Amino acid sequence: MGGTEGRSARGTRAVHAALPEPLREAVDEFARHLASVRNRSAHTVRAYVADLVSLLDHAHRMGAAEVAELDLDTVRSWLAKQRTMGAARASLARRAAAARTFSAWAHRGGLLPTDVAATLASPRPQRTLPTVLRADQAALLVEAPTRSTADGRATSGAHPTPEADAHPTAGPPTADGTGTEEAEGAEDGERVARAVRWRDRVLLELLYGTGVRVSEVCGIDLADVDHGRRVVRVRGKGGRERTVPYGLPAQRALDEWLRHGRPVLAVPASGEALLLGARGGRLNPTTARRIVGAYAEAADLPRIGPHALRHSAATHLLEGGADLRAVQELLGHSSLASTQVYTHVSVDRLRAAYRQAHPRA
User: How far is CA 250 from CA 124, 256, 259, 342, in A?
Assistant: First the structure.
């Protein structure tokens, strides 16, 4: 757990421990409900629990010792306090949603006599248009790991992260620094570096070629890939599964990775994971984000993460004539409203091109 996130989690646990027992029990039961009944992701559960702990701590400071003493005025004063502390509109909207969800759950379970937050209004989050690469920029990025010079060596920036150095077989030469052991160590290091580049190419091809989330691509197992039909099964938010297609470039990258790359990195603990880290475990989303950012920086592209490739895939599909419903299904959006933002992106790009090119713009 990273620095800021780790400090936030520790702070939440400390505040939780200081709550009266009835409030602590309500938090724990609500967390179990979100995870097991609502099937929310671990990230969503953590966020909602942190918001609820903050709300109940505020209520406790105002004299409440049980959930039944929570009322709408307390919830509103909690949100007002968050706003004065500088919380963003999106954060306030999420916290209001957490309060409404908890209030409805507590009312159904008999902890609250009424659903006190049912009428709670929340600020509409300010929707900013996502970063989208041009098609040529996306191609430059996904091809970066395995693009080669005329003499066969990787181009500058083809492996911008030092992850290969972490592999157990890619350690430093022996103490004397001479002889066959040194040569074998160098050869092993180069094999691992090539394998990591093949892995990076598959990662980028799948992120852009399918529009999947970074957590979804990291969760793909070998059995999830149907090479004959060129589709892959992914598990999205709430554990929902969907099948998405991928193209020939991704298929070629997969073939290279499975034949020449994955066997180099695989260890007994690799299991069925498709994408592996340099030490042989399943590639994790944090490392994947670092990989995407490093290649984008090396290619002099805008500073982006994996989600920008998802945005780019959706926008390019719509610009190419894809149906909005089909894009919704591909991305795994539960609501069409989430997909419609890409129509605004396409319109804005069209408007910019018109202003630049039309003599009467």
Answer: 39, 10, 14, 23
Count the neighbouring beta carbons within 10 Å of the beta carbon of residue 130.
Answer: 17
Q: Are 72 and 113 in contact (CB under 8 A)?
A: no
Query: How is the chain split into domains, by residue range?
Result: 3-108, 135-309
Do 305 and 289 contact (CB within 8 A), yes or no? yes
Please, what is the end-to-end C-alpha distance for the chain in angstroms?
Answer: 51
Q: Which long-range contacts (CB under 8 A, 24 or more apart) does 66-69 make?
A: 66/20, 66/22, 66/23, 67/22, 67/23, 67/26, 67/106, 67/111, 67/112, 68/111, 68/112, 68/113
The predicted-structure confidence for 163-202, as pLDDT tens digits, reads as follows: 644 554 444 333 444 455 555 566 778 889 999 999 999 9
Instruction: Catalogue the active-site residues.
Output: 213, 237, 307, 310, 333, 342
Residue reference for tokens 């003599």: 359
Cα 17 to Cα 161: distance, rounded to the nearest angstrom: 41
CATH number listed for the domain at residues 135-309: 1.10.443.10
What pTM was estimated for this model as a whole?
0.66
Which residues lie below 8 Å from residue 174, measured CB to CB, with a gap of 6+?
Answer: 181, 182, 185
Q: Are 130 and 308 in contact, with CB atoms under 8 Å apart?
A: yes
* Pair 348, 311: CB distance under 8 Å: no
pLDDT digits (tens, 9 = 90+) for 278-327: 899 999 999 999 999 999 999 999 889 999 999 899 888 888 888 888 88
Q: Burial of 220 by CB count in 10 Å (0-12 exposed, 13-18 middle, 19+ buried)?
A: buried
